[in-house]
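RECORD TYPE: inverse folding
INPUT: structure tokens
STRUCTURE:
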């Protein structure tokens, strides 16, 4: 009688455990489905942004593929790269840059920022500032300061390319001599 009572108690306990496990599985499944939907939404938004920036579905797909390969190497989200591409493409058209050149710029900037230890927020902020500067045609003021702080390796490379120090780069910026 005691064995039978113990077995019934154990059976009820296993039933409760089974119900709890099913509940956990349902919650995990719902969370997984939500993440899949969010990933699909992010992909769709990125492709629309790229299509607007490039002017065609085919060009957007090519750029997306390039940004995706870059994301695998840098760890920067493809959606963030697509945003940066869209920002830079406006300025790029005005100076005759190709989609491939803009994608390489985005990849290079992100890799440079990661090497310098910048956070995702700093990368996004500096990228936005650089895109705004390129769109306006001049790199100066807040945009230059943001790049000097958020993308120091880019600032150093720019100074090296121009044959000046970082201090002289700041001076050139304040004089409006850093143009697209």
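DESIGNED SEQUENCE:
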């Amino acid at each position: 009688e005691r064995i039978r009572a113990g077995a019934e108690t154990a059976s009820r306990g296993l039933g409760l455990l089974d119900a709890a496990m099913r509940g956990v599985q349902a919650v995990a499944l719902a969370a997984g489905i939500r993440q899949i939907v969010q990933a699909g939404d992010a992909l769709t938004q990125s492709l629309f942004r790229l299509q607007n920036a490039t002017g065609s579905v085919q060009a957007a797909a090519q750029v997306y593929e390039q940004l995706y390969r870059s994301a695998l190497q840098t760890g920067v989200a493809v959606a963030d790269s697509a945003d940066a591409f869209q920002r830079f493409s406006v300025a790029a058209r005005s100076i005759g840059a190709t989609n491939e050149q803009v994608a390489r710029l985005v990849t290079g900037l992100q890799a440079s920022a990661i090497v310098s230890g910048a956070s995702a927020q700093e990368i996004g902020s500096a990228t936005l500032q650089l895109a705004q500067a390129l769109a306006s045609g001049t790199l100066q003021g807040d945009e230059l300061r943001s790049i000097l702080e958020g993308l120091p390796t880019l600032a150093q490379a720019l100074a090296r390319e121009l044959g000046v120090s970082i201090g002289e780069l700041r001076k050139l910026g304040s004089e409006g001599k850093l143009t697209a």
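NOTES: The helical segments are 2-54, 57-74, 78-95, 99-115, 120-136, 141-150, 152-162, 166-174.
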